[in-house]
Amino acid sequence: MDSKYKTGLTNGYSPQKSGPSQDDGHLPKKFRSDDSTHSKGYSSVSISKHRRSLPVFAVKSRLLEEINNHSTLIIIGETGSGKTTQIPQYIHDARLEKSGAIAITQPRRVAAITVALRVATEMGSPIGHGVGYAVRFEDVTSPETKLKYLTDGMLLREALIDNLLMSYNVIILDEAHERTIHTDVLFGIVKQAQSIRRAKNFKPLKVILMSATMDVDHFSSYFDDAPVVYLQGRQFPVNIMQALKSHEDYNFAILVTVFQIHREAPPNEDILVFLTGQEEIEAMVYSARLVAKDLMKSGPQLRVLPLYAALAQFQQLEVLRPGLPCSRKLILSTNIAETSITIPGVKYVIDSGMVKLRTHNPTTGMDSLKVQRISKAQAWQRAGRAGREGPGTCYRMYTDEEYNNMAEMTVPEIQRCNLSGVVLQLLAMGVNALSFDFMDRPPVESIMEAMKKLSYLSAIISINRPELTPLGHQMAAFPLDPHYSRVILAARDMGCVEEVVTLVAVLSGENLRVTVSKRREDAASAHQKFASPTGDHITNLNIFRAYNSASMKKQFCFDNFLNNRNLEYAAGVRSQLLDLCRHSNIPISSCGQDRDCIRKCLIAGLFGNLAQLQREGHYLTVGSNQVVAIHPSSVLFRSKPPLVIYGEVVQTGRCYMRQVSSIDPEWVNHIAPPDFQRKINACLNASM
């Protein structure tokens, strides 16, 4: 970037030194390939030439030797070095997997799909044959698949059927540092499978952990002092521009920075912005496109592209394609772009410094989806995205002081989330979570709280005897939070499976409704057509049914201020859930116009998410006595039902309930577990 441009931004930013290289003296310097170039993504360069240009190619022979000599190996390599796409192919070409297959896990479905498509192209194999992928609600594999890219959650589900994972001779746990809740459980599962297979003289299991950065000593110690090798690529320098003062509205500051760059930087130098979630991204997509339209007469074309997990696959792939001549891509992404995928063309990174994390409080039993500061490790991961193909610049929307106050590493998800699903899956494999070999053990109170919830759900015999009941085994068959699995099984008994499956599918994605700032009244009027006086759950069901019956779905969504992407996603999830119901011999029944039974089913699974109206006008959660309010986006926002059930609590200054429906207290006495009936009745009597 020229000096004129740098000077133009120094009023708002303070230049800092580039972040520490991965080669900082703390990692083994075993493999080096300083003269190689990084991946250019889907470029016009021949596939063969591109593969040879990757840093990993220069050390292929030595790397295979290390993999062959060790049952467990940790590989540290920068994103873009080729480790995710090339190492599985090297192993396959050397036939190290022998008669089995190679599983390569990814923490996110976007990465699993896009990397599988890329590797299939490189191998000249139709996707689903030699190379395939499996993500939640989508399995594109066949008996011929030898390289299988899948989310860590999908491999964990395979372990429910075969805890020794005998289909695989090699398992690669990629992006291991992200420490999702499923990844942490997988660490223990594959370690145990490897040990048992060795002891019983079964075919050996080779385990490879890969990451751009991690606490190598901690990982190596957990995996029985596994050797660590370092694959060095070229990390181009990144100029860090730190904010000189705190931003009250970082979204506005980001928008200003984007168009400063756009006005002065050469074309085809793309911008990557890190935001917290879909709603924030789509709001900025709208704003950026409006501003870009005014600037169309001068400068390069600006293509504004969102990137988040719920986005349709073809739109995710659009982000990864090279930009058009004399244009610029502006990619607005969640933390999905930190490490999981390499986006070609990115020269500038703008880091909001924020991330949306779900945390669980075992004392109150409440989940909170909260926007909070990232860790220092995440800050450097984000900054590094600007230096993959050449020197770049990262603009941080936070000051040096704010950076210094950040935590060094992000707390592993296993230590801050609701463990009901994990405990259920472990029990389905015959493993008690209290004795499971976690890398970082979650608090005992979190495990006990999860068992308590599973006991209330009738999934286990008792807390003192944590064995799955027949109902618990049925719940474990669904790739859902146990509470929603229980809701579906309740629908079987109440004759409303089709409606409840549809509702659960809708709840698995993001918000269906869109509000355009300049047309709020029009949007509210359109949404009112679907509103149910009983609350958001039936309203969402009304929206989906109207969408599903529309012949021109995109136009229907446009006319009614609805999110077509999220409705498409819900339709796909619904189809898969209905197939799972058929596979589990659950008849697809319908309740017709009797919508009360749908809300009764919600009580069967979400009885812990009840809140009661108090004389003072606020709500208290039943049992934990937490003050909460109905979210402004809810159809019940301006009404005050005496008792409500909610999907989640979001903390943004105050605690808001989202996905709220009114509940008849009498239903609770017939459906909720006896202990909860007593709690609810005590709360009701106290407020009268």
Explain how this protein is built:
The protein has 688 residues and is α/β, with parallel strands linked by helices. It folds into 3 domains: 31-232, Rossmann fold (3-Layer(aba) Sandwich), CATH 3.40.50.300; 238-413, Rossmann fold (3-Layer(aba) Sandwich), CATH 3.40.50; 477-674, Four Helix Bundle (Hemerythrin (Met), subunit A), CATH 1.20.120. The protein is 40% helix and 19% strand. The protein contains 25 helices and 23 strands. The strands form 3 sheets. The protein has a 9-stranded mixed beta sheet, with helices on both faces. Strands 1-11-18-15-12-14-13 form a 7-stranded mixed beta sheet, sandwiched between helices. Strand 20 and strand 21 (627-630) form a beta hairpin. Helix 4 (83-93) crosses helix 5 (109-123), helix 18 packs across helix 20 and helix 18 (497-507) crosses helix 22 (564-583). The radius of gyration is 26 Å and the shape is globular. The protein starts with a helix and ends with a helix. The model is unreliable at 1-11 and 17-44 (pLDDT under 50).
